[in-house]
């Protein structure tokens, strides 16, 4: 260690008066001081880079919500005037480059890549909504976070603690621009004095979320390998990635379960335990050794030994110069002692943010003494708890602590430090252009195809069950048509019914199946997409490409049995097969479209019949197209039922031209059917408003519809992904 701490790490330690010696910010972190600093002083580097005052000109801020931001803007403009009086600060945000790969792994982070992260006046509230009962008035706006500010420096672990519902997860989500769809957010996030945008933050950070989400059907090792493939920088070789996977397996003691399924695809077999899932989530985020690590209760549900292992990994990352923010639930005294900084929250407000080692003394000064042999973490939560029996008294007590903190040396220093960061806030070009993705489009696509294929392979028996049930369904439906004489008019009409039934079975089974399988994965997709793992298009394409052929297998099994029972000519079968493949592609695409747009499977399943039934009615069987009201006729051009039915019947009856059909005894329809007893295929189709000879046009139309549905689905998913 050089012994000289980078200036940007000690911006405020010299400010403020020392009226309260015992609660001083100067303690900082001993870990921070131990970071090997073998690089040039970042402040000096920045001064050289920034000497022209570019940063000042580009000063801007991050605004999630325009409301409430004008004051901040004014502040910044006035502060800009005295910029020259302040030491220069680094403005670069970097992620390790391909030629600096060593810094991705276990060595100390280069000074340039270290991140001081601060946030100012983060306010989050719910949007007022319509009352569900009574339907009058609006539900009031609820403030979840109230002007929360804070800072965490490289080499530090900042532990955020507070009672349940105090806003810890909301703060982390907000800092990371996650899950904010239904909330109003304002405030500023700053990294190394530069504006933080969602993309550059994603590129720099890892986030272990409170709830674990996994694609089922993969083993622990497979899951980690997939994560390594898409999360670790493209400049790393496969061997280096696998080496890191091995390292993480050992660090988080997952080696014994490396070949165990996370959970089987159909959930019928229990996979790894809850604690192991938690460690696996953590392992995925630390694979890349991010410069900035956010963790939401990473130790919840872990035994004390495992919790300690997880914290040790965090300590190791911090020692390498990385920045760690973590919320933590009921830490043991040992774990608590490993935290450098402590942020205590109550009802969405900051009550204390300073050295963890000084917090007890601070509370003591506020008149709250921790009993001896008592876990300080428990003591803080008890002290800040709102007693439901007397909430006002509890709130006054918490208010008193918060006020004392604001007036303390640490509180004043914190405010000054954040003020200082805001002054230097600059939007560098680099900040804007940062891509969140670490690997190329092709690598993302291959990795996703591999994961989907592995998942399908694991659930191979499900495909087999699907094939068998489809065959049984085909037998039960097809047996009704056995022995039908297609040379009679009634037989021909029945065969048409059978062909329509074939289309209906393909449509409903594939649409429902696609919604059921695809929609639940979208939640995981959002999380992984926002973690910078892959793009919307790679995810969508990989899903469609792997799932469609699987759907085809079970559908062809149905077709074979059903077609045999209908007793139709095998000469015509190849064309039927092509039409059925086009139909499956079209209806599955319709399923992908619905699944991409709706929020949950339930909504999708409820919507589907409403959307599909009109298309079915326009298919040409139930009502002759000729009999439809004129304004409804064009709608048939978005009906896959219409195109598939016309193609199948066209193929079936095209050779019947000139061949007479026997007329049943009481046959009375005369229109367009010449004398009782004869009809040709074209006339038979014409009765339904269908055209003979359109089978290839219809097959093409089915594929065009498929493309249309996929485009709508893709756009829907992209719009949802933008909302975060
Ligand atoms: N989208 C939302 N809409 C409405 N209320 C919300 C929303 N998100 C969070 N809240 C509310 O905000 C408060 C803080 O929630 P948050 O999840 O941040 O708490 P927490 O401190 O992480 O709690 P825990 O320790 O239980 O995880 C809670 O009262 C919660 O109900
Ligand atoms: Mg939480």
Largest sheet: 6 strands, mixed
Estimate the mean pLDDT confidence: 79
| Percent in strands | 5-15%
Question: What is the end-to-end distance?
Answer: 42 Å
Gross geometry: elongated
Query: What's the β-strand tally?
Result: 12
Give the neighbour order of strands across the main sheet: 8-9-10-5-11-12
Helix content: 40-55%
Ligand inventory: adenosine-5'-triphosphate, magnesium ion
Which parts are unreliable, with pLDDT below 50 for 5 consecutive residues or more?
1-30, 32-106
What is the CA-atom radius of gyration, in angstroms? Answer: 33 Å
Task: Give me the secondary-structure category.
Answer: alpha/beta
**Total of helices:** 25
Written account of the structure:
This is ABCG-like protein 4. Residues 130-372 form the ABC transporter domain. GO terms for molecular function: ABC-type transporter activity; ATP binding; ATP hydrolysis activity. It is found in: Membrane. InterPro entries: AAA+_ATPase, ABC2_TM, ABC_transporter-like_ATP-bd, ABC_transporter-like_CS, ABCG_dom, ABCG_transporters, P-loop_NTPase. The chain is an alpha/beta fold and 724 residues long. Among the domains are: 214-289, no CATH class; 444-723, no CATH class. Helix content is 50%, strand content 9%. The protein contains 25 helices and 12 strands. It has helices at 30-34, 42-50, 54-57, 70-80, 168-175, 198-204, 220-231, 238-251, 274-286, 304-319, 333-337, 356-365, 376-384, 391-407, 409-423, 429-433, 441-458, 460-478, 489-530, 536-566, 573-597, 601-617, 640-653, 681-687, 695-723, and strands at 117-126, 129-130, 138-139, 143-152, 157-162, 183-191, 194-195, 205-208, 292-296, 323-327, 341-346, 349-355. The strands form 3 sheets. A 6-stranded mixed sheet has the order 8-9-10-5-11-12, with helices on both faces. A 4-stranded antiparallel sheet has the order 4-1-6-7. β2 (129-130) and β3 form a beta hairpin. The longest helix is centred in the last third of the chain and has 42 residues, at 489-530. The radius of gyration is 33 Å and the shape is elongated. The two termini are 42 Å apart. The structure holds adenosine-5'-triphosphate and magnesium ion. The site of adenosine-5'-triphosphate (ATP) has 13 residues, from α5.
């Amino acid at each position: 260690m050089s012994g000289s701490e980078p200036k940007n790490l000690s911006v405020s330690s010299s400010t403020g008066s020392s009226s309260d010696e015992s609660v001083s910010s100067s303690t900082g972190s001993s870990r921070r001081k131990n970071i090997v600093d073998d690089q040039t002083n970042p402040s000096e580097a920045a001064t050289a880079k920034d000497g022209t005052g570019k940063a000042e000109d580009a000063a801007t801020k991050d605004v999630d919500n325009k409301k409430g931001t004008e004051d901040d803007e004014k502040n910044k403009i006035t502060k800009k005037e005295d910029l020259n009086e302040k030491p220069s600060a680094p403005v670069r945000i970097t992620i390790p480059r391909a030629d600096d790969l060593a810094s991705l792994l276990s060595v100390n982070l280069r000074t340039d890549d270290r991140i001081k992260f601060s946030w100012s006046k983060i306010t989050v509230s719910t949007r007022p909504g319509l009352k569900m009962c009574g339907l009058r008035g609006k539900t009031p706006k609820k403030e979840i976070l109230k002007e929360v500010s804070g800072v965490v420096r490289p080499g530090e672990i900042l532990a955020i603690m507070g009672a349940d519902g105090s806003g810890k997860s909301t703060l982390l989500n907000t800092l990371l621009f996650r899950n904010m769809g239904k909330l109003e957010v304002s405030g500023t996030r700053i990294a190394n004095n530069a504006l933080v945008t969602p993309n550059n933050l994603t590129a720099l950070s890892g986030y272990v979320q409170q709830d674990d989400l996994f694609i089922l059907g993969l083993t622990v090792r497979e899951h980690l390998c997939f994560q390594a493939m898409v999360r670790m920088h493209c400049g790393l070789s496969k061997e280096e990635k696998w080496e890191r996977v091995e390292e993480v397996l050992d660090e988080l003691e997952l080696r014994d379960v490396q070949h165990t399924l996370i959970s089987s695809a159909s959930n019928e077999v229990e996979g790894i335990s809850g604690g192991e899932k938690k460690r696996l989530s953590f392992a995925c985020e630390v694979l890349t050794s991010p410069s900035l690590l956010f963790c939401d209760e990473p130790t919840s549900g872990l035994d004390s030994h495992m919790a300690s292992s997880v914290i040790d990994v965090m300590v190791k990352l911090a020692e390498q110069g990385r920045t760690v923010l973590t919320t933590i639930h009921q830490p043991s005294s040992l774990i608590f002692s490993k935290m450098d900084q402590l942020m205590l929250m109550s009802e969405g407000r900051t009550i204390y943010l300073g050295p963890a080692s000084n917090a007890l003394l601070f509370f003591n000064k506020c008149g709250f003494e921790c009993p001896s042999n008592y876990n300080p973490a428990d003591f803080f939560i008890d002290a800040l708890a709102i007693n439901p029996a007397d909430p006002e008294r509890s709130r006054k007590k918490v208010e008193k602590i918060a006020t004392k903190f604001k007036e303390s040396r640490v509180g004043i220093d914190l405010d000054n430090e954040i003020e200082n960061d805001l002054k230097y806030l600059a939007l560098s070009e680099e900040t804007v252009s940062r891509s969140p993705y670490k690997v190329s489009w092709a690598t993302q696509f291959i990795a996703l195809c591999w994961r989907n294929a592995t998942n399908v392979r694991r659930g191979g028996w499900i495909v087999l069950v699907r094939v068998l049930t489809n065959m049984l369904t085909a037998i039960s439906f097809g047996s009704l048509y056995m022995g039908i004489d297609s040379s009679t008019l009634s037989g021909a009409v029945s065969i048409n019914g059978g062909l329509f039934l074939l289309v209906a079975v393909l449509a409903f089974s594939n649409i429902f199946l696609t919604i059921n399988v695809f929609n639940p994965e979208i939640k995981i997709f959002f999380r992984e997409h926002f973690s910078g793992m892959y793009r919307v298009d790679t995810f969508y394409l990989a899903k469609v490409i792997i799932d469609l052929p699987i759907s085809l297998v079970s559908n062809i099994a149905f077709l074979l049995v059903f077609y045999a029972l209908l007793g139709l000519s095998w000469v015509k079968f190849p064309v039927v097969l092509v039409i059925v493949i086009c139909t499956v592609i079209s209806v599955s695409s319709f399923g992908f479209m619905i699944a991409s747009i709706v929020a949950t499977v339930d909504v999708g399943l409820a919507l589907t019949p409403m959307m599909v039934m009109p298309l079915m009615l326009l298919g040409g069987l139930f009502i002759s197209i000729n009999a439809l009201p004129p304004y409804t006729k064009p709608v048939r051009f978005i009906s896959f039922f219409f195109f598939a039915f016309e193609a199948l019947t066209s193929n079936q009856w095209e050779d019947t031209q000139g061949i007479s059909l026997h007329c049943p005894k009481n046959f009375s329809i005369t229109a367009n059917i010449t004398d009782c007893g004869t009809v040709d295929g074209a006339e038979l189709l014409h009765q339904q408003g269908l055209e003979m000879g359109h089978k290839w046009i219809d097959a093409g139309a089915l594929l065009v519809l498929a493309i249309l549905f996929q485009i709508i689905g893709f756009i829907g998913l992209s719009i949802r992904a933008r909302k975060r």
